[in-house]
Amino acid sequence: MSVMKRGLTLKQVEQARLSTLNLVLEKQMTVKEAACILGLSERHTWRILKAYREEGAPALAHGNRGRQPPNATPEEVRIKVINLARTMYAGLNHTHLSEMLAEREGMTFSTSTVRNILTDAGLTSHRRRRSPRYRYRRIRTPYEGMRVQIDGSHHDWLEGRGPWLTLLLAVDDATGTVPHALFREQEDTHGYFLLIDGLIRRRGIPAAIYTDRHSVFKPTRPVFHARDCTGNRRQTQFARAMKELGISMILARSPQGKGRVEKMAGTFQDRLVSELRLAAVSNIHEADGFLEDFLPRFNMRFGVSPS
To answer: Average pLDDT, stretch 137-154?
Structure first.
């Protein structure tokens, strides 16, 4: 049976403590025995027994029960955060939302505070995290710019405000930063040449690039057409250009092989899509211009120091 204290219910532990103290008062148990049962010192048991005699059952509940903590978020602020999460910042995950609130609204909260406010209001994060699976983690290169992973991500980046686009991005293996990225209508050779050009202008020529086996990087002809009429192994225009620049090409045999750029594409599909919506970007030219502001902020937030 629950016992009330000024409209509050005693917890199960407190109710068990009440029953034990009643046995002491009825002379069916000594204070020393009660202290052993309750896991308290005999002195403290005498203390709570005295309080129980003077105040009754309410004395067993914690004194702060039902009080507003001094560091609690004011109700009007909670309502404002919830309204912003439902309107202007709809679709942002909890971490991204806490960053936007600090950057644009001057409301600085920890991610856990934002999560608690929204969860209490029934607003869960739309991006569910899968439980991690054990995989062999590829060791990062020791120096920035040594190896770069590149890939394209075809997605509804503008959420219906414009056509579907392909984001070509390069991820530095040592730092996890994105030195260059650009939008294209499709994943093509010209787009990857522009990506490499922007990468070299910003960070210099990498020693190696890690790619998938897209037709831009590897010929799609059958094995018996793998060499041309002179006996040389066939190469794509992109592969030939990389050879001229002295850049080694590593072709991954699975998405996990170039996991950093794959994961980065997923992160961009969450964060970049939300920020493109906030900026009302509706075409490829505006999207490319927005990347100039987005990438430095993103790299500062998520980049790591090379070993």
So the answer is: 87
